[in-house]
Each structure stands twice: as C-alpha cells, then as structure tokens.
Amino acid sequence: MELEQLRQQALAQLEAVADETALSSWNSQYLGKNGLLTQALKRIAQLPPQERPSYGQQVNALKEALLAAFERKKSELHQQEIARSLAAEALDVTLPGRPVLRGRLHPATQVMRDILAIFAELGFQVYRSREVEDDLTNFELLNMPPHHPARDLWDTFHTTVPGVLLRTHTSPGQIHVMRQYCPRPIRVVLPGMCYRYEQITARSEIQFQQVEGLAIGESISLADLIGTLSTFAKRFFGGDRRIRIRNSYFPFTEPSIEVDVDCILCQGENAAGPSATATLPVSSCTLCKGTGWLEILGAGMVHPVVLRHGGYDPERFQGFAFGLGPQRMAMLKYGIHDIRLFWSNARHFLEQF
Ligand code: PHE
User: Fold this and answer.
1) pLDDT tens, position by position, 65-97
2) Which residue has better confidence, 103 or 316?
3) How far is residue 348's CA from residue 353's CA, in Å, rounded to a whole number?
4) How far is the CA of 286 from the centre of ligand 1 (A)?
5) What are the sequence ranges of the domains in the chain?
6) Residues enclosing ligand 1, CB less than 6 A?
7) Which ligand 1 atom minimizes the distance to the CA of 302?
8) 325 φ, ψ (degrees, to nearest 5)
9) What is the CATH number of domain 108-350?
10) Which numbered atom of ligand 1 lies nearest the CA of 171?
C-alpha cells in the first residue's frame, strides 16, 4: 500500500473513533506488532539499498504522525469521559446532610441518678437487691406474718412457685443489707423496680421504681431522719423547700411518718405561711389540690422486730428507713401528669428530657 494512502486511511479511521475500545483496536490495526505501519517499516529491509533512505524517511515521518494523532485522540477521549462523568454523576456538596438522631438517658434514669447523687453526698452507698423475692422477706421478716391485715396495703404479683413473688416495695432489701453487714453500722440506699397488681391509671402503674433508704447505728434518732429528708427535699426540688411530717403506719417502722414537701407550684402559700415567690393562689393550685403540700414519701424508725430479724440487738441499735418513688418525684418536679408515660416508649415524651 502506498504510504500516502495508508496515512489517509489511518487518519480517517482515527477520526471516526469514539471510545476506548475502538481506539485500542485502531492502535493494533496500525501500530501493533502486525499492524499496517509496522509492516511498512519492515519493508525497508527488502528494498534495494538506494531506495532505502528516502523510503525510510517517509515511513518514519508517517510513524511519528500516526503516534502523535493517536496520543491526541487518546487525550481527547479522556477529556470527554471526564466531562461526561461530571455531568452524569454530579454531586451537590451544598445539600444538607442527613441528621443523626442523638440518644439520651431515659428520664427515669436521669432522675434516679440525681437522687442517688444527693444521697451519695450524704454518705449513703448504693445496694442492689433482688426484684424476685420470697414471701418471707417481702412480708414476714418486715413484721407482717401470714394473714396480717397490713399485707393488703400491697396488692401482690405471685409466681407459680409457692411463696415466690415480685417485690411490692424495696423494703425487703433492708433485711438483705442488715444480714450482710450486721453488726456494723449501715447507711445505704436501695434503688430498683417494684411491682404491684393494681389497676393502671394516670397515678399508678403495675411497675415503678423505688429508692429505699436505711441507716443503722448506735445513736440514730428521728431527728436524723428528718434532717436527712429535709436536706434531700431542698436539694432535689431546689429552693427553700420545707417539709411537713405526718403521723402514719407501716408494720416495719415505729413510729411511722409520711413526709410532704410544700407545693413547688403554688409554694403552699396559705398552708405554710406567705411566700414571695408564689405564682398562683394555693386555693386554685391543681398540683397540690389546694392543700399546699405534696406527699413525697413514707418513712420511720426501723421496728425492733425488723432490727432483730436483721441480726441487730434493738437494745443497742436504732435505725431509720424511708421509701420514695422516683417517678412520683419526677412527676412533681417536671409537671408530668401521667405515670404511664414512663414505660410506654412514647418518643414525644422521652425527647423532652
Ligand atoms: N415500703 C413502703 C412502701 O412501699 C415505704 C416505706 C419504706 C415506709 C421504708 C417506711 C419505711 O409503701
């Protein structure tokens, strides 16, 4: 084939090349090992010596030209590919990212930690006690023998195993702590879930947390109990909270008391004397229902029978105990009106904390 014809044919075909595959087959057709240009180069050796220089010059010039054209085409295709992918795979880096939901502690956990932190400052250690109890520890050792009428204060979930039940309060933990530490002094709080076989309402759940408190020593009095609880009320609810002690009854404490805090909404204006920070008259307060006081817990001095069951000699040792409900405390503090919100996994509720 004439070199000029070869040049025209090669360049025309290269012009029509539109992708990498076509380019590489063009390359092997002309520049490859058996390509047309390679054949033309090999022909030099077959020519008579006097024709070789001029032919050689021409064929080498053609080789340079085709190589240059090939490189140009190659980079042209490359540029086209970049332009295409930029257009087709466009990425808008200015779009807002997908929000990552932030987890948080359950309000019951937050309030529980607040409560335990306050008692830690007062020197109370945390003691964990079991949720599945026996009748003996939940009732009998707490001074409630079988058929004792006070058992009716706690509607109980019994299991299919006779004498095994879900604890109705954290008080059986008192027995476990005393038996473990006797005769040493004790200052513990016992947090945990309790269960009661009750109608579920906005004010009562079949499961709820309690924090039991227990202090045993050789010179512990009701004054220590009142001091501890009034300090706690001030720290938990903030401000200048006052507490009120009322007479009560529990089989495992003597005397037994119930503790109220002055209403955090109306400040118990009428009930506890005038208050500069009251926001509404006590008579129209829905939180304390016009009484000026909110009931927060039950407490008392550990009954001698209970001390003895724990291994302590009531002639030498005294103690106080209290039981408070963190859900109830949270409802008072944050104005939550329905206790069922705590365990219903309602996100609109949980997200507020
Ligand atoms: N255990 C009692 C209840 O659940 C509360 C309480 C605890 C009372 C300790 C006195 C002393 O109602």
Assistant:
1) 999 999 999 999 999 999 999 888 888 889 998
2) 316
3) 10
4) 26
5) 2-88, 108-350
6) 169, 171, 212, 250, 253, 298-300, 321-323
7) 11
8) -105, 110
9) 3.30.930.10
10) 1
